[in-house]
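Think of the structure tokens as a kind of shorthand, similar to the way a musician reads notation: each symbol stands for something richer, in this case the local conformation of the backbone. In the example below we present two proteins back to back. Begin with the first one, reading the sequence and then the tokens, and try to describe in your own words what changes along the chain.
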Amino acid sequence: GEHITVVSYGRTLPICAQAADQLRQEGISVEVIDMRTLWPYDWQMISESIQKTRRVIYVNEDTEVTNFGEHLMRRTVEELFYHLEARPKLIAGAFLPGIGLADTLEMASAPQLNHILDGIREVVAERA
């Protein structure tokens, strides 16, 4: 990817890959990183990708409060601030109490393809 790094894991990873494939047709080159594990995580790989693309989005289904993506955003800002051309972004589950297994409720509260596509387009369009 040349335009943006997308870091994800778990159920949102295939959606991020789908978004990257779709955005390729729009001329947006996305590098998708599968974290695979939360601890230990490969910060060197993530950092090198961010320094190359100069933009990053973290995507997972955890709620935005107490989300591991918040840790990654903090580390990105602390260590890579002067390498960024746009603010880092977190696309996460809605901050709601636990929901049941109803598909409509899950679709409304967990990141979906349209959320990821919109987020990537928004950050790629930003200029520092």
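Once you have a description of the first chain, move to the second and do the same.
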Amino acid sequence: MVDPNFVSDNPFFDARDLVQVKYEMLRCVERDGESVVKASTVFGLSRPSFYNAMRAFRSEGMEGLAAKTPGPRGPHKLN
């Protein structure tokens, strides 16, 4: 990650907090007008990760940016 906020000594920005990293990446594109390619490179994520984060944020808000629990999403046995 190369974003100046996350490499500074500012305790508010934590590069280990993936939700915050994704939110700041989305904000960089929406508010600052950066390209998706540049923002994803600066924040150390892929372009598909940007679009997945954008889709999740628009549908679920901040909760959509949190990691989902792994495993099956529903029943997987046949009766």
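Compare your description with these statements about the second chain. The longest helix spans residues 47-60.
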